[in-house]
Amino acid sequence: MALQFIGIDPNTDEKNCPRVWVDDEAQEFVIQGWKASDALQDQVRETGPLPDHEAVVRIPARMVAILREACDAAERAHVR
User: Which residue of 1, 19, 56, 71 lies most exposed, with the fewest beta carbons within 10 A?
Assistant: First the structure.
């Protein structure tokens, strides 16, 4: 796995912080975020199932620039 670190929550304490990577080999985004509450997961399930092998995480909107950078990096690596 060739992970390219893109960025970290700019308001982080460096311990418990959302982060974003691009996996060039797997052609995937890797996102670390806060675990979704049961109530949020229930809302997600209203639009479809949430399989046991998948997770819902939250990241702050202040990370929009980091997500855009990840998208740009993915495009450069021909991630589709």
Answer: 1
